[in-house]
Design goal:
Length: 146
């Protein structure tokens, strides 16, 4: 079984409640999120989501992950897979770490499965997408508090 891991982070000058509210307002994603361009469903453990991602230079990809963790103001985590279990699985996570009035936002994904060893280039595009989303989230959270 192959595994790969991506983790990005950014500091946001906003309270955890504001960051969580923006992160879980899926209906607003098309207006600000350059990576997850739309999402449908509830941010609740056990719920199914429909998520559409847009990586630079590629067509939009849709998948239906299951929410694993929805710890209000702290963590949102889901797991999706392509094809059949064990071929290409991804556990996507967002952690909101409270730093007394600011947030250290951690955004990442753990990839596992037989096909992971064959994939190299798309992971750099995925990292760029995460970073673009982080920056957009920071701008939205800091602007909405002004």
């Amino acid at each position: 079984m192959f595994e790969r891991y991506i983790e990005t982070a950014i500091d946001i000058m906003a309270p955890p409640e504001r960051v969580w509210a923006i992160l879980t307002d899926f209906a607003a994603y098309p207006s600000w999120n350059p990576y997850i361009v739309s999402a449908y469903g509830k941010p609740a453990a056990g719920a199914w989501l429909e998520v559409h991602i847009q990586r630079r230079g590629r067509r939009t990809m849709m998948f239906r992950p299951t929410v694993l963790v929805a710890d209000v103001n702290r963590e949102l985590r889901w797991r999706g897979r392509l094809l059949i279990p064990g071929m290409f699985n991804g556990e996507h996570f967002f952690r909101i770490e409270d730093r007394s009035g600011t947030v250290h936002f951690v955004h990442g994904q753990a990839f596992s499965g037989l096909l992971v060893g064959l994939i190299r280039g798309p992971l750099s595009a995925t990292r760029a997408g995460f970073e673009a989303m982080n920056t957009a989230l920071k701008e939205r959270a800091e602007r909405s508090g002004a």
